[in-house]
Amino acid sequence: TVTVTAAKTSPVTAASEGSKTVFAGPLFRTNTTRNQMRAIFDGCGKITKLRTYRQNYALVTFDSAASAAKAVSSKNGQTFKNKALKVALSSQ
Hints:
single chain, 2 helices
């Protein structure tokens, strides 16, 4: 008789789960102001940090993971300057 028992391991979670930071792009850094970028996420929660990069994306840090999740669910796919935004939780 062979007995099989489950291994005692914790469930694997994604690195971005519980993140307060979201990736957002394309944001057209050269002709978009920081206030316009903040306005995109208006109503999602308090932004504590906004970093823009030359590759036309930004990392937006919120005050809570719930605010970041709300930003992803409500802003991903939204049109900004005739392009669909990609908004996703970041592992950074």
